[in-house]
Amino acid sequence: MNLHLESYPKGTTGAASSGRRIEHMQVGRRFGMFPQATASQDGVDSQIQVWCSNDYLGMGQNPRVAEAMKAAIDNHGVGSGGSRNIGGTNQFHVLLEAELADLHGKEAALIFASGYTANDGALTVLAGTPKDTIVFSDARNHASIIDGIRHSGAEKYIYRHNDVAHLEELLAAAPADRPKLIAMESVHSMLGDIAPVAEISELASRYGATTYIDEVHAVGMYGPQGAGIAAREGLADKFTVVMGTLGKGYGVMGGYITGPAALIDTVRTLSRSFIFTTSLPPAIAAGALESVRHLRASEAERTALSENARLLHRLLGEAGIPCLSTDSHIVSALVGDSEACRRASEMLLDRHGIYVQSIASPDVPAGEELLRITPSPVHDPKDVENLAHVLGGIWKELDIATASDRHGA
Fold first, then answer.
1. Which residues contact 323 (CB under 8 A, 6 or more apart)?
2. pLDDT in the model for residue 180
3. Which terminal Cβ of the chain has fewer Cβ within 10 Å, N or C?
4. End-to-end CA distance of the chain
5. Where is this region: Disordered (predicted)?
6. Other CB atoms within 10 A of residue 290 CB
């Protein structure tokens, strides 16, 4: 059988469109020493400092989390043994779901193998039930949200990113008797800006819409006990379904949804990405449970994260380096050119041992290429100052537009 392999693009879609193949650098994180790590490329190892990890709070290195996982392996082995419906439900799955439901003040929770499968699986069901539901989706929503809505077959309307006026215009034009669902992210994964949750919740109430808020880049890091942006604003009860991940702020892996028991049971019963996959290993669930419990009780990680993010935003601003938003811990330095962005990333790594992955299409639109920097509690403030200093030098060397250039000053 001839598969015509020469016709297949090399790397990802974005890599093919730029004529380059995606290469995955091996990053060897060393327990207890993060953000220090070992990078392996072409058989050569080098020591680096990681500045683009989604382990936002360093919980993937937390000793209590590690010990919980080791104990679970000693007691239960490494795998779950099956899907949740067929022999693969462990006590840690049940305890974790109860903990997450309590964290968000919801009746029930359901955990998935990843944040992607949580969004895809949940929205495929929720947007398609009842069948005449109309979905209103933010234009910058994550691919997993887009895919879930697409797989539901529901009629959908896209509102401009965080544009409340446009959302209201679309809601007002929709038939009053049709069920409505608003899907959005609280903290955007690339822009780092925060959605106007109060205004959106008010619109949902006015037009009788169900709300689905993705708090992937917020849980663990914002709000009381790390419950997210909606909780920080005192609006958690205004959002029907709160979705989150266990692989970012909590440092492990997995995704989840929380909400009314009836909705969660519907997803549990109908979601293909929940039903037809092996459940999380008990050790993963045990580690996630310990991480959630730790961050519900500790403010130290959130405080240090906030201080480092504010410091980096300030220093980059003083250097004239434009950031897409200063709302959150995601510090996205706008380069605006694919080649310059790649070069800046390479220079940081080759000259200074600083690893910041360049972000280009399809992750962001062409012209919005950026360096997505994520300072964490485990970075020293002096490291933050050093990063800002060397990045300022690279910015000048590559003649990348500064904030004043972009505003015509």
1. 192, 313, 316, 317, 331, 332, 333, 334
2. 98
3. N
4. 61
5. 1-21
6. 25
Q: What is the mean pLDDT of the chain?
A: 94
The reported pLDDT for the residue numbered 21 is 63
pLDDT band, residue 402 (cuts 50/70/90): confident
Rounded Cα distance, 98 and 29, in Å: 31
Task: Decide if 180 is catalytic.
Answer: no
Q: Which residue has the tokens 């099956």?
A: 82
Q: What is the share, in percent, of the chain residues with pLDDT greater than 90? A: 89
The pLDDT tens digits of the residues spanning 312-330 come to 999 999 999 999 999 999 9
Nearest to 333 by CA among 341, 382, 218: 341
Question: Which tokens is 197 given?
Answer: 């949750």
Strand partners, 47: 38
Token couple for 166: 């446009």
Structural domains of the chain, ranges and CATH numbers in brackets: 11-50+300-406 (3.90.1150.10), 62-297 (3.40.640.10)
Q: Which of 10, 180, 248, 396 is catalytic?
A: 248
Q: How far apart are CA 154 and CA 73, in angstroms?
A: 42
Q: HSE-up of 382 (CA within 13 Å, CB side)?
A: 0
Confidence of residue 368 (pLDDT cuts 50, 70, 90): very high
